[in-house]
Every structure is written in structure tokens, then in C-alpha cells.
Amino acid sequence: MKCRHCRSPLSLVFADLGSAPPSNAYLTPDRLAGPETWLPLKVFACERCRLVQTADFAAREALFDADYAYFSSVSRSWVAHAEAYVAAMVDRFGLGAGSHVVEIAANDGYLLQFVAARGIRCLGVEPTASTAAKARERGITIVEDFFGRGLAERIVAEHGPADLTAANNVLAHVPDIDDFVAGFRILLAEGGVATFEFPSLLSLVRERQFDTIYHEHFSYLSLMAVERIFAANGLAAFDVETLPTHGGSLRVFAERADARRRAEAEGLRAQRAHEAQAGLDGRAFYEGFQAQAEAVKDDVLRFLLDAKRDGARVVGYGAAAKGNTLLNFAGVRPDLLPFVVDRSPAKQGKYLPGSRIPIVPEERLAAERPDYVLILPWNLRDEIAAQLAYVRDWGGRFVTAVPELEVF
User: Fold this and answer.
1) How many whole angstroms from its chain centre is CA 270?
2) Which of 180, 229, 353, 369 can bridge 174 by disulfide, Cβ–Cβ 3.0-4.6 Å?
3) What is the pLDDT of residues 112-142, one digit of tens each?
4) How many CB atoms sit inside 10 A of residue 406's CB?
5) DSSP characters for 137-169?
6) Alpha carbon distance 386, 181 (integer Å)
7) Sequence-distant (≥ 6) Cβ neighbours of residue 106 within 8 angstroms
8) What contacts 206, CB < 8 A, 6 or more positions away?
9) Domains contained in the chain, CATH given
10) Rounded Cα distance, 259 and 247, in Å
11) Is 71 buried (19+), middle (13-18) or exposed (0-12) by CB count in 10 A?
């Protein structure tokens, strides 16, 4: 395999999690009698450009299909994050009625609803029919397609260039990262700003967040790698903000390299120095992560086995992609985790891929009063624990597995 950016041969293994089905390929009851497609889940680090990436086994159309079940608006904290983002961008870049905002991977309109509410012209790009339909219900104009050079040219021709583009948690999801980034160079107006949010590779390693590895994530990103990709495709970063979302994320601000107007901000220089000090440009940083992933797996499996032996009942909360990675890597099945609760109606009544654990509504918690609730989307642990505070009424406790097993 060659690096999907610089085409260098890949040999440095970052993580090998065996095999698993795509993490969002939830099963309907009628599919339980049939087989699932399991794909190798192996990640390499490019020793030339430092892009960390999965081996190629699945096409984007198979991963992000018409029945895609992730709806951003289910998380209240994520919607609040989007609202704060819009307010900050409007203030910082002076956006108004004459501006044009385009969001790539607009999902169900969770973010653009706040742009539209301010009277700012906006457009969303979203390839999954299920979420695009929800966005349209909110009155958002959606182009239902995958983004890249070709679509950028079409948007500019039909809607005009963008003063601001938002790409939250999508840069890691694209197999052809060069075509994707080059599209922003085409889409941006002269003086326009592109923002990209993505989980930080540095946080992933330091916090042992191996469960954020799944097939839908083609890349695991550092500023170091992203700046190299930008430079090759006509963009230049001018600022970086660090965010607590998804266990530690970066928000990178960029503009067209051929129309630079902004000086490099302190946040950009600080993140460059931070990654350099951590050794991201050397081989040692990427070695040893496999052992960290296995330690997390062993701890959660030991907890579930001990609970079963002691007669304690453990259930899961949050049918999240990261939870599927953890459960499949650990080999957890319904005998150790009989069901997982999720608030999304799109997931209820289905089964987790691989483990085939049933997904049920929240009412099952009060009905069955489990001893422990394993919160699979650990990045939302505070929000979920507050939402499920009544679990403590019968002496129930919460558990998270990453970065280390914690019962609270």
C-alpha cells in the first residue's frame, strides 16, 4: 500500500485491530440470519508526510450510504458547539446578509440552521440521503453528493464562491484527501476562510483513544500532516484552536495560498511547537500504540467478565462507532452486554455490527435497573451521566473504558 497523499510506500504499523464490520453498518432484525462483511482494520503511519491512515478496503459509497444512521442533532452538546461556532465566525469575520456560507458534511442541518437563522445565505453538502432529508426539513438547501474538485466547480458556477466554509469532522472521512482539500481552493472566494475540525492525533495517542479508529475514518490527523496536504493543494493555514470535543480536537483556519491576507496567529505557531516537542516527526511517536490499545481492551473485558461472575448486570449506552470498535476488538457479545441504549430513533430496534448487541430505547434502563452503565461515547460522558442521573437512584454506577477503565 502507498500513502494516499504523498504515494510513499507504507510499512510502519500504527495499530492493528484485527477485523470488524464498518462501524455504522447497523443490522436490522431481518439481516441477523445473514452474514456480515468483516474488513481488516489496520492503520499505517507514513514516514514521509506523517499522514496516519487506514489500509484501503472499503469504498466511501459503502460506508456513507442512504441509510447512514448518525444524526448530529442527537447530541445536545454538539448542537451547542455548532451554535457557538456560528456566533464566533460571524463575529470574527464580519459575516452578514451578503455573505455565503457552505458546510461540507452538513449532516442533518445541525449547524447551518444557526447560519440561516441569522439571515445569511448558506448551502450544505451532504452525501447521505437519510441526514440530507432531515436538513431539508429544516429549510436548508442541500447538494446531495460527495465533495471534491468537480463538485466545488459546480457549486461556484451555480451558487457562487463561499466566504466561509465549515468542515467539521469530515476531513478524516475522505479517501482522496487531496481531491477533497483542493475543492476548498476552488470553492473559496478571494479572502474567504475555510475551517476544518478534526480529532487530534496527538490526543488520540496520549489518551489511548484507539476506539476512534474505524473504517469510516480513513485518516488520523495532526497539524503537521494537514499543513503538508494544504500546501500541496493551494491552501495555507493561518490559525489553530484546540477544542475539547471528541476527546481533543483541532480547529484549523485556512485561506487560499494565492490570496493570502492574514498573518500566522500564535495558535498556529503554538500547535506546531507542541507537535514538534511531542516527536510527531519521528518514528518513535507512532510505535507502541498497539500495546496501549490492547491494555484498554484487556481492562474492559476483565471488568465485564468479573461483573458476570459476580452476578452484576452491565448494559451499554450510546450505539456510537467508537463503541463498536471497542466491543469488536474485545470480542464482546450479548452474554456480557445484553443491550445498548441509544436516543436515536434511527438506531433503535437495530443491532450493533459485529457484536450483534440489540439497540433499545432509554426506557429499558428504568425497567431493568442495571448495576452498571458502560458509556461507550466517552467523549460525552458528562452529558450522558447527567442525562441518566436517575440510574444512581437504585445504586447504579457508570463506567468508561478510555483512556483507562473508570467506575464512577
Assistant:
1) 24
2) 180
3) 999 999 999 999 999 999 999 999 999 999 9
4) 14
5) HTT--EE-S--SHHHHHHHHHHH--EEEEEEES
6) 38
7) 112, 124, 125, 126, 131, 132, 135, 140, 142
8) none
9) 72-259 (3.40.50.150), 289-407 (3.40.50.720)
10) 34
11) buried
Distance of CA 371 to the CA centre of its chain: 30
| Set of cell numbers at residue 37 | 462483511
- What is the per-residue pLDDT across 25-40, written as a single tens digit (0 to 9) for each? 999 999 999 999 999 9
Any idea of the CA torsion for 174, 179, 185, 186, to the nearest 10 degrees?
-110
Sole residue written with cell 439497540: 359
- Statement: residue 376 has pLDDT above 60: yes
Q: What is the rounded CA–CA span in Å between residue 348 and residue 201?
A: 32
Please state, in angstroms and as integers, the Cα–Cα distance from residue 209 to each residue in 280, 296, 343, 402, following that order.
17, 9, 23, 6
Q: Are 237 and 268 in contact (CB under 8 A)?
A: yes
Edge-to-edge strands of the sheet including 142-143? 142-143, 121-125, 100-104, 162-168, 188-199, 249-256, 235-243
pTM for the model: 0.90
The string of pLDDT tens digits covering residues 139-168 is: 999 999 999 999 999 999 999 999 999 999
Nearest CA among 390, 388, 329, 318 for reference residue 359: 318
| Amino acid type, 250 | L
From the list 100, 254, 262, 271, the residue with the least C-alpha distance to 182 is 254
